[in-house]
Design brief:
The complex is a heterodimer of chains A (411) and B (308).
Chain A (H helix, E strand, L loop, with lengths): L1 H25 L8 E7 L4 H19 L8 E7 L4 H13 L5 E4 L3 H14 L2 E4 L5 H6 L6 E3 L4 H18 L6 E7 L2 H14 L5 E7 L11 H10 L3 E5 L2 H13 L6 E4 L18 E4 L10 H14 L7 H19 L4 H9 L14 E2 L7 E2 L4 E6 L2 E6 L18
Parallel strand pairs in A: 1-2, 1-3, 3-4, 4-5, 6-7, 6-8, 8-9, 9-10
Antiparallel strand pairs in A: 10-13, 11-12, 13-14
Helix pairs in contact in A: 2-11, 3-4, 11-12
Chain B lengths: L2 H23 L1 H28 L6 H19 L3 H27 L4 H23 L14 E4 L2 E4 L3 H20 L1 H11 L1 H6 L4 H26 L8 H14 L4 H19 L8 H22 L1
Antiparallel strand pairs in B: 1-2
The chains are: A alpha/beta (411), B mainly alpha (308).
């Protein structure tokens, strides 16, 4: 009797669940399946979370305007764990299980390199944002379905040098003696080696000192490094390190009254609330976007205020607007292609002409050293002035004039 | 004069001469080396006390420093409390955290194998770090304190002075700990428990209470050091690991109960690293000093033990 009752309860529960599933299915419009975009971001990091927020914002905007081709857009995001193997597995799932129409996203070069074989296996239409290393570019040679957003490392270096020399010439700043404080992992060491290799043959006096970043076991002692730089007496002092290293280094410079005419920092992201620290005044850097661009670019302004309205915080970095652009470029191409056919999509992407949220107008895809579809985003020189990261160069998007030489350290 | 004393005088004279040469040759490196060494000593001392008396190698030590740093950071950011003022409340708060940790986890692992203890404290390390990651993200945060980049000028050299906080605190801590362990009754009981737990228990000392007190005290000191740390440096969830490693290295070189030795070796490490960093192009070699000191220390100690 008791056994029969248990069976009855089990059968009832199963029936209720089946009915629930069936009813839930009724709500979905079976005739118009959504357009599926797939992305991987390093979700455990602040940058990855910003990417996800910006990408979702773009999708929400697209859907609120009726979607694409009369269909809703869905974005499936997986965490790449900042790990090439995890990223490769995530992209495999996007291609095989989720069967997305277009792949996008990505962040670090190492994870992008790990994903390259998977991209080549499935050959989906891909508009990849991440991976600035030329090694990733070399891995994607001959892939006509592959479009890349972020400038390659050599493109960034060239653009940065043009920006710096142009601004220096226009403001009569000497740049002959250069001291570089670089962190000793691959990021800093490679950048310093590239800088030396390109500038020393041109007659520049370049020297540098490595340090271990706080992120890789360093303890933030910059006293001796600054002493060495002070002895060298450079025209231009560059820091290639991470956000955790910037303020302790500037603090040590202030302590030793070492105030070179030009100080440039190149961290992947700046410390939280860096602008509110008095030591930030007059520090220059390179980026693709700063909030100041909202005052001169309508596209940048639209993105900036939409992001704040949705998330009640300002986008902390250029990677947010760039990810938003990544989704919008795909959406624009799908709309113009009129279908999800891969060949039509490639043709539409090749005809891209897009006003971006990072302030660059008329972004197009053009060949780079090794691939045929590289987006024409530009790196910008900016300077911290009264707590705001003001764009200095290119002059077309400049939001302030360059302050030179570096002001006296705050007392 | 005994042979041992003569050796000590020779060693002290040698170190004094080396410091004098350095003061003329690379004064800035010497100053910053002393400051960095002070910080290393400060971090290593509570770790050494926990290991020497409670017998636990606390791998979560660095994350406790990080949590103390975050407490001080937020107290300063939200309510304008100077990190130096945060030291006193942090001592109390982290003492309670230490008691909680001891009661809930550490006590259960005291009789376990070293491997189990390491796994436990490493687990705590991971939990604390991930909690910090979830709460405050991985980005570096730094306070803007007026005296953090204060400086002084002697002759032609200008140098930062706020780093001397670490040196002063390390000296005060080592003196305080030595006095406590030698003079105070509880300190003497703690030393007895550290040397022979069973014998101390037979003499009527409550071993469990001593363990609780000493472990909580080391956690309290570590949390308070976090407040001093944020005066000069950026804080982020993974900030503690290098200090864990340096602390362990110093204990291995100086010996478990040798608190004075830890301070000397910490200063030596700080000065050596700072000296190497003062030569452009050779900064990368500074991290090797740490391993060189560890290997040399272990070799010397092994040789000594063999002779005995």
């Amino acid at each position: 009797m008791r056994r029969n009752l248990t069976s009855l309860v089990c059968v009832s529960v199963a029936l209720v669940l089946m009915l629930g599933v069936a009813l839930a299915g009724c709500g979905e419009p079976t005739s118009t399946p959504s357009i599926k975009l797939g992305a991987v971001f390093p979700l455990s990091t602040t940058i990855g979370q910003e990417q996800q927020k910006a990408a979702q914002l773009a999708v929400m905007e697209i859907n609120s305007h009726g979607g694409l081709l009369g269909r809703n857009v869905t974005l499936t995001v997986y965490d790449d764990g900042n790990d090439p193997t995890v990223a490769a597995a995530a992209v495999t799932k996007l291609c095989t299980v989720d069967n997305v129409n277009v792949l996008l996203g990505g962040m670090a070069s190492a994870t992008s390199l790990g994903v390259a074989p998977v991209l080549k296996t499935y050959q989906k239409a891909t508009v990849w944002l991440g991976g600035a290393s030329h090694l990733f570019e070399e891995a994607m040679v001959g892939c006509d379905w592959f479009f890349h957003i972020h400038p390659w490392d050599y493109m960034q270096a060239a653009q940065q040098w043009v920006a710096l020399t142009t601004v220096a010439t226009d403001n009569s700043c000497p740049l002959q003696k250069i001291f570089v404080a670089y962190e000793d992992s691959a990021f800093g060491s490679t950048s310093y080696a590239l800088l030396q290799a390109s500038l020393v043959p041109l007659g520049y006096n370049v020297t540098g000192q490595s340090f271990t970043s706080a992120y890789y076991g360093g303890t933030g002692d910059f006293g001796s490094l600054v002493d060495a730089a002070n002895t060298f007496d450079p025209d231009y002092f560059a820091v290639i390190g991470y956000d955790a290293d910037i303020l302790p280094l500037l603090g040590a410079m202030k302590e030793q009254a070492f105030n070179p005419p030009l100080i440039l920092g190149a961290p992947p992201s700046w410390p939280v609330n860096f602008g509110s620290d008095p030591l930030s005044e007059g520090i220059t850097g390179f980026t693709m976007w700063t909030p100041a661009l909202k005052d001169i670019s309508p596209a940048a302004q639209t993105f900036y205020y939409a992001y704040i309205a949705e998330y009640h915080e300002a986008p902390p970095d250029y990677i947010g607007p760039l990810t938003y652009d990544n989704v919008m470029i795909v959406a624009d191409a799908i709309q113009r292609a009129g279908s999800l056919d891969k060949a039509a999509l490639i043709t539409a992407l090749e005809a891209t002409d897009y006003d971006s949220a990072v302030g660059d107008d008329d972004v197009v895809f053009a060949p780079s050293n090794n691939i045929t579809h590289q987006a024409s985003f530009t790196v910008k020189l900016f300077q911290w002035q009264a707590g705001v990261a003001e764009i200095i160069y290119p002059y077309e998007v400049a939001t302030a004039n360059f302050t030179y030489p570096h002001p006296a350290w705050p007392s | 004069m005994s042979n041992k004393r003569r050796q000590r005088i020779c060693l002290a004279a040698g170190i004094g001469a080396a410091i004098a040469v350095l003061a003329f040759w690379k004064p800035v490196a010497l100053i910053y080396g002393l400051q960095a060494g002070g910080l290393y000593a400060l971090v290593a001392l509570p770790l050494a006390v926990a290991l020497g008396i409670v017998g636990i190698l606390n791998l979560s030590h660095g994350t406790l420093l990080m949590l103390g740093g975050y407490f001080a950071f937020w107290a300063s950011t939200l309510w304008g409390v100077d990190p130096l003022v945060s030291v006193a409340p942090l001592l109390l708060v982290f003492f309670l955290i230490g008691m909680l940790l001891y009661r809930t986890t550490i006590r259960r692992a005291l009789n376990a194998t070293l491997f189990s203890q390491l796994l436990l404290t490493f687990g705590l390390y991971m939990v604390f770090q991930e909690v910090a990651n979830l709460l405050w993200r991985g980005n570096a945060r730094q306070l803007s304190i007026s005296y953090s980049s204060a400086s002084a000028t002697i002759g032609s050299i200008t140098f930062g002075t706020s780093g001397f906080i670490y040196l002063a605190a390390a000296i005060a801590l080592v003196v305080g700990l030595v006095l406590f362990l030698r003079r105070a009754k509880t300190g003497q009981a703690a030393v007895a428990v550290g040397q022979n737990p069973r014998g101390a228990q037979l003499c009527g000392i409550n071993k469990d209470r001593i363990y609780l007190l000493i472990f909580s005290l080391t956690v309290a000191i570590t949390g308070a050091i976090g407040a001093l740390y944020v005066i000069r440096y950026a804080i982020f969830p993974a900030v503690g690991m290098p200090f864990n490693l340096k602390g362990l290295c110093l204990i291995a070189v100086a010996g478990e109960g040798n608190l004075g030795g830890i301070v000397w070796f910490a200063l030596l490490l700080g000065i050596a690293e700072s000296l190497i960093r003062s030569f452009p192009g050779y900064g990368g070699w500074a991290s090797i000093v740490f391993f060189a000191l560890l290997i040399a220390g272990i070799l010397v100690r092994t040789q000594r033990e063999r002779r005995r």
